[in-house]
Amino acid sequence: MSDLVQQVRDGKASEVLVRDADIVVELKAEGDQKPQRIVATRLPGIDETALVKEMQDKGVKFSGSSSGPRGSETFLARLGASHRGCSAGSGSS
Fold it and tell me: pLDDT tens-digit profile of 46-67?
C-alpha cells in the first residue's frame, strides 16, 4: 500500500479503481511505454479519506466497483463527504 500512496504523492498516478478488497492504480505512461498498474490490498479498518484528498489534490481520476453493499461504496460515500468538506466517519450499516 505504501508504494501506491507514494505514486499518488509523486503525481505519477493517472487513474485509480477502488474495489472491495484492493485498490488498482494506473500510472502515467512515460514516453511510448504502456501505463503500468499497481495493485494494493485494502487494509481493514483504515480510513482512506486522506488518500481521497491526495487523489483530488493531484487531479487523479478515480472510481469504485463493489460486489457487495460495503467496500468501495463506503469509500465513495467518504469521498462524497470529503468532497463537500465534511468529516467522514466510519459509519455502520
Answer: 888 888 888 889 899 988 877 7
CA distance 74 to 69: 8
d(C-alpha 71, C-alpha 22), whole Å: 9
> Could you give the CA distance from residue 72 to residue 58 in angstroms, rounded to a whole number?
20
Q: How far apart are CA 33 and CA 50, in angstroms?
A: 30
Could you say which DSSP state residue 30 is in? -
**Residue from 56, 58, 55, 71 nearest 18 by CA:** 71
One-letter amino acid of 64: G
Name the CATH topology of 2-83. Answer: 3.30.720
- Concatenate the DSSP letters of all residues of 76-87 into one string: HHHHHHHHTTPP
